[in-house]
Each structure stands twice: as C-alpha cells, then as structure tokens.
Amino acid sequence: MTRTLAPQPLTADAFAPFGDVLDAGGSPDRLINQGLCGRFHDRARLDFGAGGRAGISIFDARPRALPYRLEMVERHPEGSQAFLPMHQNPFMVIVAPDTADGPGTPLAFVTDGAQGINFHRNIWHGVLTPLASPGRFAVIDRIGTTANLEEYWFETPWEVRGR
User: Fold this and answer.
1) CATH number of the domain to which 99 belongs
2) Could you tell me which of 29, 6, 41, 16 has the C-alpha nearest to residue 117?
3) pLDDT band at residue 163, thresholds of 50, 70 and 90?
C-alpha cells in the first residue's frame, strides 16, 4: 500500500517554510563588472552551525521517473544544504514539515529548470531527484567532523505521481 502526492511547481512562497528558492527572477539587485553583469544578491540563508565550515561538492545523481516511490526522508541538524543544477532540466524537490512524531505529510515540487534550492537546517527532505540526465549539481553544505544526517523511513511509503 502507498499514499499519493501530486507535485506542484516550485515557488518561493510555497517553499519558504523549508528553505530558499535560488533563481534570477526579476531585476538584479545591482549591476557589477562595469555594468555588464546583474547581481542577484544574497539569495540563500546558509547556516553551518558551530564547528563546521562551508564546502562545495559536486553530486552526480541518476535520474528518476514518475511515479516515484518515496520511502525515506532525511535532514541535516548541523547545517543548511543548497543544490544548484549544472544543467537546465527540472528536478523534483520533496520536503516534509517536522512534527512531534517525525516528518509530517510530504510536499513535492518540480523546479522550472532554472531554479536551485537551499534547504534550511533541520528540514526533512527527500534525496536528490533529477528527472532527466545529467543529474549533476553543485552542492554547498556543511563540512565538519560531527554527524549531520538523520534518516526517517516511512512505515507506509508515498508515491509521487504526475499532475
């Protein structure tokens, strides 16, 4: 038995309780480089906690397809985690609110192909889920010596189906 979710387009307002949408929408905050480059300034709240530092890694994930079976979510209690696609393909983002019993009902979003995301610290989220190849992302997250991963396996999985 599974429960179903329908993905929705990723918007800054809908995603705000879980993190930041990283995009270059609207007008730039200022022009730099002799007026030839628009700077969309300070788009993510990066948070790496005590005893950690910011690191940039490259992830290369295998694409997934809908329907997608969601069995597990994870969170990072020691720091935020930002994903910047190194391609122009939409990817799926799954998050869940925190409850007294663990993660609540998940929400699924699909990016528009030009958006990245930043999960705030301690937010339940699904694993990296590209919907096409390549699945390569620059990831900015906490590098440190203490554990920064907690997993939760759903007793009854969820199935994300197309809209």
Assistant:
1) 2.60.120.480
2) 16
3) low
